[in-house]
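Reopening closed ticket. The problem is back. First fold of the pair:
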Amino acid sequence: MQHAPFGAGMRNELRASQAPPRTLWIDTARGLGIILVVYGHVLRGQFHAGLLAWGPAVELQDRAIYAFHMPFFFLLSGLFAGAQIRSRGEFVRRRLVTIVYPYILWSVVQTVLTMGAGHLANGHHSLSDLERIGTDPIGQFWFLYVLAMLQLLLLLPRSIFLLMVPVGVAVFLIFGGGPLLARAGWFLPFFATGVLLGRSGLEAALRTPGAAIAWLIGGGITFAALLAAMPLLSGLPAALAQYAVAGAGIVAALGLARLFGDRIALLPALGMASLAIFVLHVICAAAMRAGLEHIGLGQPAIAVLLVTAGGLLIPLAIYKASIATRLTPWLGLGYPPRTPLPAPVLALPEYRPLEPAGRNADVGRDQARGPAFQ
């Protein structure tokens, strides 16, 4: 029996990846999410490098971002991953390309680079750390590890998958957010919400501008109130309140993304490149920070903005180049999008009346397309 070479198999897999037309405002939601990821890491990175004072304003931004931005991504992941699995083999192959391979490749690359970066890197890893990535992820790559764990649960019958949600919550409440299994339990309700909602369900819920405005205002007010109340809570109430805070933040972010739509072309472009940005942003932001230090730019606020921009736009440029050269999956950046990235990427917003999502959207057609970073 003859087997096709690996390269041919990859090309056939790419051709076989048939997905419904993209909903650009959901890509905008991903774009908003990845901006928060990069900005949050830059704030902490600048602080650990001794370049940013941890004052009340920075602390508030940090608390607000980390209260909901990763649950947001897990919910977005569930929107598409939860569609009917037509082939278990295809499901596993796609996760190998969009989660496992990027996890291994970029864990190695980031570790090797930090080993050679000396004082320019905030965090240092060794080859012994790479030996443990099967059970102990390096840096931000814990997200891909936990995402793979949750996606594998979709291979279970739906009823058993849903029964795992309260089990996951209980594990989190008992063990906290430290161990990987407990961390997966914390994120499982958000992932399961995305699975149950699906793309068509979310589009239907935010079909009108009025609904989007209600989500933004209602979610935003609730999020701010709960975030302010969190320091007053402790024990079980504080742990449960984390779910409410994250949920309110997600609702507000989805409402904002729906209102933005594709009016700012950079946002859906960042969303479509979110996997590339996620695996590359720590490296690019560190290089940007080192460059600013070299030229003597010491104004903290400007440095944060420039490093954040570098952590977003450099990976975006690399992602676009990988699409042009057809190297996207080989570089561990997932599958290339079936539709071109919005262009011009840095276009100014163009006013257009907000249309209901269902007018031109392919509502009702869901297909498993991989993680949130796809």
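Second fold of the pair, where the issue appears:
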Amino acid sequence: MTPRTVASAVLAAALALTTLTTLTTLAACGSASTPAGSPGGGASVAATTVTEPWVVVPPTPDTTAAFGTMHNTSAAEVRLVGVDTDVAAMVQVHETVTEGNVAHMQEVPGGLAIPAGGTVQLKPGGYHVMLMQLTRPVAEGDSVDLTFRFSDGSAVTVTAPVRARAGMATSSGSADSMG
């Protein structure tokens, strides 16, 4: 073997090792940033987004509600099946329904459907996320991290500012005044 052949073989081996190391590192980085449920990793974009999130100043010390707008850009219906946060021991997706002259809140069974290519608004008096059994005080100006979990396995985490709602008492009142 000539010195030139040996040098070429060493260079080829070093290049192969560098390529393998780079691909392994990129694969590890891609899996760490992959949204839950997305195949392949790295370059995927979640089909469902949450915009304009906010949490209302709690009218009682142990319960509040979160709002925002969910957008489904996929060609299939997806359901909001849960929301996780560290500020509440119990979280439920609710709707406000009126029976006779009485409005009340109830949990949405089976998750909240977001139509293909559609939008669902979480708002006072309609669909909303109830944060119950608060684990820490929540005050105007704070922010709350919320992770929305969807039926396709994806999850979207947002940071929601805490703000007062016009016309809402913040020191007394019932939880029913939130939804």
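Update: turned out to be a display glitch only; the data is intact. The two ends are 81 Å apart (CA to CA). Residues 107 and 121 are 16 Å apart (CA to CA). Please close again.
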